Amino acid sequence: MAAEREEPGPAPRACPGPGPCPGPGHERGTARGCPSSALPAPGHGAMERARHRLRQFDIGDRFSGLPLPRAAVLLPLMVRAGRLHLLLTVRSLQLRRSPGEVCFPGGKREDTDRDDIDTALREAKEEVGLQPEKVEVICRLMPGIDKMNNLVTPVVGFIEETFQVTPNPDEVSEAFVVPLEYFVKPLDYKTFSYKTSSGYSTRVHCFTYHDQEHRKSFKIWGLTAHFAVFLALVIFGERPTFEVDYDLDNLFSSSENYFTNLYASIHERKKSNL
User: Fold this and answer.
1) CA distance 256 to 139
2) At CA 85, angle to CA 125 and CA 34, rounded to 5?
3) Cβ contacts of residue 233 below 8 Å, gap of 6+?
């Protein structure tokens, strides 16, 4: 799904602090995944630290009641040479929307999907041949809202380092991996301001990653970059070399405020159009 909102409803409720809010269905946030034998050893340091940090930021089904069309993306993490890497894809040039752009596997929810995790896993299977049982789902992070006003939930999961991508040519032209730390310490980065259709001003991150394996450069920006940056901030817990829209000493609450303000801007715009 490329990185890029129906009737207004109540704003999301606040949560007392980092970690999931209790609620119906929340236990599914980390319940799914593959058997441990399909993944690197559970004691792997990088993975264990990441699991611990990510579970503190799991939102579960917290925003499931918002009256927006839903979509989800899978943020597939793997460990290579002891370092966390993130798998990304390039959208097929045959697609009408955002052809050739870098994105995460994902798309809109279908009627058969039970939740955002189902959506993300189904789309990853369709797009790159990743079997759902080969993913250890860890959490759902703070959602975003794309330019089509879809509520997009990032689902984080670990996959095997040996996973071989099988691109669906109708949707994906190629795939590549980026060290996660690149999204806090990039070598080629710029930012610009962007005003959404609802009038909300935000910062857009734009990374250029020079991939030695493919001998080419990839531009990672928009909502894809937004999710990648937040994932890196959560896992590493350190300040990036660029400015972000969060209070890094209160990352969970400030990310929630960021999303709430974005949603509120859409809510107010819809009311003004009534």
Assistant:
1) 16
2) 45
3) 184, 240, 244, 246, 248, 251
Is residue 191 within 8 A of residue 203, CB to CB? The reply is yes
Tokens of 264: 């509120």
**C-beta separation of 50 from 145 below 8 A:** no
Question: Residue 162 has which token pair?
Answer: 């040996």
How crowded is the C-beta side of 77, counted as CA atoms within 13 Å? 28
Asked whether 184 and 238 are in contact (CB, 8 A), the reply is: yes
26-to-23, 63, 116, 190 alpha-carbon distances in Å? 6, 11, 12, 37
Model pTM score: 0.84
Residue 238, token pair as written in the block: 């350190």
Output the tens digit of pLDDT for each of the chain's 274 residues: 544 433 333 344 333 344 433 333 344 444 455 433 344 444 368 899 999 999 999 999 999 899 999 999 999 999 999 999 999 999 998 888 889 999 999 999 999 999 999 999 999 999 999 999 999 999 999 999 998 889 999 999 999 999 999 999 999 999 999 999 999 999 999 999 988 766 778 899 999 999 998 899 999 999 999 999 999 999 999 999 999 999 999 999 999 999 999 999 887 755 444 3
Q: How far is CA 212 from the centre of its chain?
A: 24
